């Protein structure tokens, strides 16, 4: 569903995009210009909590400041039939003429070194089949997909055989979206500014097939400021020129309003960042992690499990305390 007026606006905006973004090959159609804005999932965890707790004094703020904002929906081994889950979500967005944000999070040995979000597909073959079904379920409909948070940063506890296995899966995943979801922009996760240096991450991205993706994603589920991520992203993009190309990037701004205090697992005192938008120091600023969803049994989320919605944490994130 193409919107001529929006297309003209986006074309004008493209003239102001930093030069580092302009080297990305336009292999796929533009899903932004095919839609009329970003999709708001009416069944996100904060939306469901607010609907189930209308008398709670925190519900109105959580509904207005979080649940009614465009955020990504995450898909993994909890999603059941992945084709049905992804197809239903993307179909609902397409019916509303909106652009859905999706995160694929199902690599075997997921979060192997972090240890709070373990799981994933049971084997390499199972993952290959899963991600193939994921891409096929999107089909020709417009979408934005971020592939496998932490996958290229989480190497320190892995031997070379496991690393090779992982980058192979990522490279094949990128190719699945290229082949089966031509109106999808796929971004490989590239960690955050406090984790892996730009030359190393560029090398890992190249090995994992970022040349065939739209670009890379930064700060997923983390807290570094947009400025810190923008600088880091531009350094990675410049390093990719060593391999004969460069790429645009997106930044997760869902929880970076107060920046990072050096902790990654449910740190106190964080705040919502800039809501999902085009531009702003990257190709897009996106709410990829749902504010209020726990990082695991740690920090202010003590006693919770990864992905569990914590209304008090969400409420404090609105006001930054």
What's this, in brief?
Strand 5 (215-218), helix 8 (226-240) and strand 6 form a beta-alpha-beta unit.
Instruction: Output the CATH topology.
Output: TIM Barrel
Calculate the mean pLDDT score and round it: 91
- The order of strands across the largest sheet is 1-2-3-4-5-6-8-7
CATH H-level homologous superfamily name: 1, 4-beta cellobiohydrolase
Biggest sheet overview: 8 strands, mixed
Output the structural class: alpha/beta
Overall, the morphology is: globular
- Taken together, the total number of domains comes to 1
The DSSP helix count reads 9
| Rg calc | 18 Å
Poorly predicted runs of 5 or more residues: 1-27
CATH architect. name = Alpha-Beta Barrel
Q: Per DSSP, what share of the residues sits in E-state strands of 2 or more residues?
A: 5-15%
Keywords: Carbohydrate metabolism, Cellulose degradation, Disulfide bond, Glycosidase, Hydrolase, Polysaccharide degradation, Signal
InterPro entries: Beta_cellobiohydrolase, Beta_cellobiohydrolase_sf, Glyco_hydro_6_CS
Active site: 150 (proton donor)
Signal peptide: 1-29
How would you describe this protein?
The protein is of the alpha/beta class. The chain has a single domain, classed as 1, 4-beta cellobiohydrolase (TIM Barrel). The chain is built from 9 helices and 8 strands. The protein has helices at residues 4-14, 45-52, 59-67, 82-95, 124-138, 160-180, 198-207, 226-240, 311-319; strands at 73-75, 101-104, 143-147, 184-189, 215-218, 249-252, 277-278, 284-286. Helix 2 (45-52) packs antiparallel against helix 3 and helix 3 crosses helix 9 (311-319). The model is unreliable at 1-27 (pLDDT under 50). The active site is at residue 150.
